[in-house]
Amino acid sequence: MSEGTYIVNVLAPILGYFFNKKKKDWLVSYGETCLKAFATDINSNKKDDERRSSGKKIDTIISMREEDKEISVIEVSGPPTKNDWTHFTGDRMKIMKMLKTLMNQFAKLNPSSDIALIRLYGLQVYLNELTIYEFQLRYSEIYTIEAIFTFSLPKTWADMAKADKAIIGLLKYERLLSESSKTIRDFLWSSGGEAEAIKMATRMIHTPKSTEKAKNIKSTKKMKKKN
Predict the structure, then answer these.
(1) 116 lies in which domain range?
(2) Torsion angles phi and psi, residue 45, rounded to 5
(3) 49 Cβ neighbours under 8 A, 6+ residues apart
(4) pTM (2 decimals)?
């Protein structure tokens, strides 16, 4: 079974079943597509090499319908029977970069709110094993990604005896996305008014040049005092 066939015949029906009650709220896009958030990032003419290099296509993207905002990405790292560690680690890094792009987008949309409240989630499928990743901004410019739950999908009738963990894992992913989308919605509609420390943390992510300029101004002032 190829990666594409796995997405169409296995992943899509499973997510369709578990996300059924959210079909009015979420849009699940399958196939090699790019994040809208990344396209916006590219068109802003940024010179950050890391952001430019993360423009890779994603196997599956989950978006909030009403807000038209992407909230989660899914990567299938090769066919379910092919062991390819390089592919696995490459896709894991891709998930991290795409979630970082989404996080930065939200911070820009409401720079006066606390971006640290938002948790984003990614899902990776490798050798029929699914891993849920949690991505967040811990401190100013310090992002963390953590594998919080791993489970396998049943492949044979004998595996059905352990199917409960797969069901728990998929329900957990759906619940985490529900909580994440609610937090994002509240974040986007909040009026701001947060503490200055929070504002500074947000600015440091998106305006590194401004930060360097401020440092240069301080250095100039110190030199003048010495003279």
Answers:
(1) 3-226
(2) 60, 40
(3) none
(4) 0.76
